[in-house]
């Protein structure tokens, strides 16, 4: 993904989500500081749109980002499917199907693991952990 695509996703999905659910207040946007997220034009877009971001987040830190683990779960499920997607539409359908099959307990376990993840990250002075 390039920075223009990322800005388009933020424009199409993040801004409406913030406005519809938070009326522009009471949220902090978190990303993992991957290079595409920190490009100059992305930073300028965030500043122009007044998106409130979580400052001082460790660079590329999936240890502290549960969504990374959900993406991994989704990828494992997609790879296990007997018939691989032949085009983007089939892939999109498969992703929706598999996402909806992830048990709520998986989400709850990830959320409940956050104190352990933070503790492990602190213990490791911010370096990668077993998570």
- CA-to-CA gap between the ends? 25 Å
Largest sheet: none
Structural class: mainly alpha
Mean pLDDT: 89
Strand and helix layout:
Elements: H1 3-22, H2 40-48, H3 66-80, H4 88-101, H5 104-112, H6 114-123
In short:
By secondary structure, the chain is mainly alpha-helical. The chain has helices spanning 3-22, 40-48, 66-80, 88-101, 104-112, 114-123. The model has no long low-confidence stretch (mean pLDDT 89).
Can you walk me through this structure?
59% of the residues lie in helices and 0% in strands. With 131 residues, it is mainly α. It folds into 2 domains: 3-48, no CATH class; 62-123, no CATH class. The protein has helices at residues 3-22, 40-48, 66-80, 88-101, 104-112, 114-123. The chain is built from 6 helices and no strands.
């Amino acid at each position: 993904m390039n920075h223009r695509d990322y800005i388009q996703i933020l424009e199409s999905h993040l801004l409406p989500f913030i406005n519809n659910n938070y009326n522009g207040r009471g949220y902090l946007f978190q990303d993992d500081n991957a290079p595409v997220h920190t490009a100059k034009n992305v930073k300028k877009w965030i500043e122009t749109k007044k998106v409130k971001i979580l400052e001082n987040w460790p660079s590329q830190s999936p240890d502290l980002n549960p969504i990374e683990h959900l993406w991994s779960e989704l990828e494992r499920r997609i790879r296990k499917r007997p018939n691989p997607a032949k085009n983007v539409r089939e892939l999109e359908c498969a992703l929706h199907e598999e996402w909806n099959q992830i048990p709520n307990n998986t989400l709850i376990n990830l959320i409940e693991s956050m104190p352990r993840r933070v503790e492990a990250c602190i213990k490791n002075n911010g370096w990668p952990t077993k998570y």
